[in-house]
Amino acid sequence: MNRVFKKIAIILVSLIVVIVLSIIGLVWYFVYSPNVSCSSSCEIYVRPDNNLGDVIDELSSRKLFVDDNKMVIATLFLGFSDDHNVVPGHYIVRDGMRNIDIFRMLNRGWQTPVRLTINNLRLPEDFASSLSRQLMVDSIEVMRFLNDSSLMAPLGLSYQNLFAHIHADTYEFWWTASISDIMTKLVSDDKLFWTSERIHKAQSVGLTPSEVCILASIVDEESHYSSELSRIAGLYLNRLRKDMLLQSDPTVKFAERDFAKTRILAADLLTDSPYNTYKFKGLPPGPIRLPNLSTIDAVLNAETHSYIYMCADPSFNGSHRFAVTLSEHNRNAAAYHNALSKLNKN
C-alpha cells in the first residue's frame, strides 16, 4: 500500500512540476521574451484620455509587435485590461523590448524627454503655437499664462518683454511639462546665459541685458549676413548715444503687424506706436522678434566706428552700404533707388 501511495505522490509531484514549469515557460514566452521588432526606435505619445488598449492598438497598427497575440495574452497573465490606466507622456519603443518592458514603461511613466526648438518667432502668439506643436501644452493655456501678470511677474516677465528673457535654442522637456514648468526652465536658462562677462559687456555699451535683446531683435531683422551684425549693432548704438531716432524699418513692420511688407512708405512712418522708431526715440519697449544668441553676442561685441546711416546695397544681395555723413548716405540711397528703378523697368 505504501508503494502505491509513493507512486501516486511521485506522479502528482511530477505533474505539479510539469505544470509549474509549463506555466513558467508560458509566462516567460508571453511576458518576458522579446516582442518588438523595429529597425530604429519608435516614438509614441500617450495622452491623458488614452488607456492601455489605445496604446497597444497603436503599436499593433504600426506593426511593431513580433506577435500581436503575445501582447494580448501577456495582459491576461499580468491581470491588465484594455481600460487600464497608463501615465501620459512621450515614450520610446525600441527593438527587442519585451511586453513586460512596455507595461512597466507605461505604468510607471518612464518618459523620454523631447527636444523643444524655439526660433524664428515674432509674437508671443507664435511662441504659444510653437509650444503646442512640440509639447502637450495647449496654445490657449500658454496665452492665458502669458497674459496673466500674477503668473509672469514672479518670473520677472511680462507679455511685452517675453523675448528679452527666453532664447532661440533647443531645449529638453518632458512632453507633459506644464507651461509654468516650461517658463521657469526658460527663465533659468536665460539667467545662466547672462554670465558676469556678458553683463559687464552690456554695461560697457550702456545697455541692460533686456535692452541688449531688444536691440539684437532689430539687428536680426536688418540683415542675414553674420559679418554685418556687429557693424549694424554699432551703428544703432551710435544713434542712441547721439539721441537720434533709430529709424529702423523692421520696427515699423512690427508696429503695423505687417511682416510681409517689402517697402516702407511715408504713411507708414506716421504709425502711432512706441515700436515705431521713426517717431519715438530710443529702443522700443520690447523685442520685435526672438533674437538669435549669436546676434545678442554681436551687440555685446559691437564694432566701434562712426557710421550712423546704412542703406541696402544696389546689388540686391541683402548686404548694406554704411555712411558717416548724411550726404554720403544720400548718394548710397540714390544708387539703390536708381538700381531699383532699372529693375522695375525690366
Offer a quick outline of the entry.
This protein is mainly alpha-helical.
The coarse silhouette is elongated
How far apart the termini lie comes to: 117 Å
* Percent helix range: 40-55%
Strand order of the largest sheet: 1-2
List how many beta strands DSSP finds.
6
Walk me through this protein's architecture.
Strand 5 and strand 6 form a beta hairpin. The chain has a two-stranded antiparallel sheet with strand order 1-2. A two-stranded antiparallel sheet has the order 3-4. With 346 residues, it is mostly helical. The protein is built from 14 helices and six strands. The N and C termini lie far apart (117 Å).
Features of the shown structure:
two-stranded antiparallel ribbon, 346 residues, elongated, 50% helix, mainly alpha
Write the layout of secondary structure elements.
Layout: H1 2-32, E1 42-46, H2 52-61, H3 68-77, E2 89-93, H4 99-108, E3 114-118, H5 124-134, H6 139-146, H7 149-152, E4 169-173, H8 179-193, H9 196-204, H10 209-222, H11 226-241, H12 249-256, H13 293-300, E5 309-312, E6 320-323, H14 326-345
Antiparallel strand pairs: 1-2, 3-4, 5-6
